[in-house]
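Weekly modeling sync, notes
Attendees: S.R. (lead), two postdocs, one rotation student

Agenda item 3: backlog of single-chain predictions. S.R. asked that every request posted to the team notebook include the full sequence so nobody has to chase files. The rotation student volunteered to paste the first one in as an example of the format we agreed on. Action items at the bottom.

Example entry:
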Amino acid sequence: MNKNVVLLSTLHKMAETSDSEDRKPAIILDYNHNKGGMDNLDKVIGTYSYRRISAHWSLVIFHNIIDVSSYNAFIIWNKINPTWVPDKRNKRRVFPGQLGKALVTPHIQRMERLPRTAASAALVKAVQRAESWPDPPEAAAGAGKRR
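Predicted structure, as returned to the notebook:
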């Protein structure tokens, strides 16, 4: 069976092949040489992921973009601030929570009207007073079931 395959690359301009017996195209050799980086990225972002099960391909792509962006932000933040949370062994685990808080705090502080639920009002008041974030009511009460 003879199969024709079209390979596209922005890096490879010429149709070069290897000198070995199998005569593989250079684009395939480069891909095989570098694919470990993507496998490693998938492994790392899979540990602390924002992914949710979805049948919508657009949500799957969106969550993957969030995962990769969060990991990239962690790498940059860690290089710029090597002494950040020195007492923590697993900084990667702490980072998403801190990132989320840093992203929503300015929006919460700008809110003029308090939300209607008691839990969300307590959260807004705590952020406005620049205190530590309170525990959610479910965690405090020990009710771990979703409703």
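Discussion: group reviewed the output briefly. The mean pLDDT is 80.
Action items: rotation student to repeat for the remaining queue; S.R. to check formatting next week.
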